[in-house]
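job 3f2a | input accepted
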Amino acid sequence: MGSRNIERRVVDAERPLTGVTYGPTVDDDGYVLTLITADGPLEVEFDADAMYLLWTEVRGTPWPDAQTPTEQDLLVKRLVELANGADEEMLKSAIRALGGER
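job 3f2a | predicted structure (102 res):
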């Protein structure tokens, strides 16, 4: 197995509310995920597409010690997966079917 160039840091337990933050970058059209660690801050930049993929990936992810997902949890996750691959007309149709048409 080849060596992997992975840097590992642990979020500072003394800063639980500010240890992990994200928001838009200051000088670019992307996002930055900031981790405050005992060794100092670590910033990871994402373009808009990568940030959206991360956001949708974690949207339905339960807390690590959560109970088995409910049927509703699984259905919401599947709906998000399908919506990510849908064209505009399919999305409009789904919104109408769910009673969300304005």
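job 3f2a | The chain has two domains: 1-48, 60-102.
job 3f2a | closed
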